[in-house]
Amino acid sequence: DGIRDRDVTGVQTCALPISEYQADWAESSQFLTKRSTANLKLRRNYGYLLLSYLSNVQNTNVNYSLRFDCYDKNGTLLSSDTGETIVAKDLIVLNLSRQNINVYIGTPIITDSVDYFIVYLLVDDSDVAMATVTLLCENKYTPIAVHFLNSLGGYETMYFDLVNRQSRTLEKKSYEQYEWNYNSSTNTMDRVTNNVMNGGSKIFWNQQTITYHLISDYVSLNDYNALRDLVMSPEVYVEYTGILVPAALTNIPKRSQVKTQ
To answer: What is the chain's alpha carbon radius of gyration, rounded to the nearest angstrom?
Structure first.
């Protein structure tokens, strides 16, 4: 259901019961995020950007489609394209990336000339929600995208673009077999070597834990609202080579610096 599908392309959907709080939010026809959708960021060639939308009509099929208006750095409209209609219920999760958008539209509209785009979510060909997404050039470090369930019940994305350090720990369990076994057929003790002299312990279980120390650049107040939700999120995924891997947040230091005028 939704984000749990590993093949997250285009638009994913899942039907689920909604709370009164979520219903109130759905009535406002906004994406399920506390961030302003007028200034979202997406890596140009790497990673996904998740946005969620909750229908104000529960357990009812709705005709959705997406329109993308693409602009260059001077604000000139380069193209405007609408994809095919998708029928979905309740919660939908938009998986915005350059590759997925081009596949959904059926032609490469997110080209190197595009500086930003505005995505419109349409219900029965009428606009109900919109978001402006700026495409960022790749920096010298490999960014890590973290996708998470926010406090509104939607999925969204946070990028960590600075030096993200990785560490690995490996845990093993082993056993030792008795060197001699009783042979009931011959009433003798036979030596067990498995063709190895003094074989010793044998490993039967391995577990590897990969830990990332994530570091972001200075965050705006807009992104700070999402960062607070990430810290408290019960469901977190790290994007690894296009695959969403379940993760857990640990050892979260709270250090912030506020600049006042």
So the answer is: 25
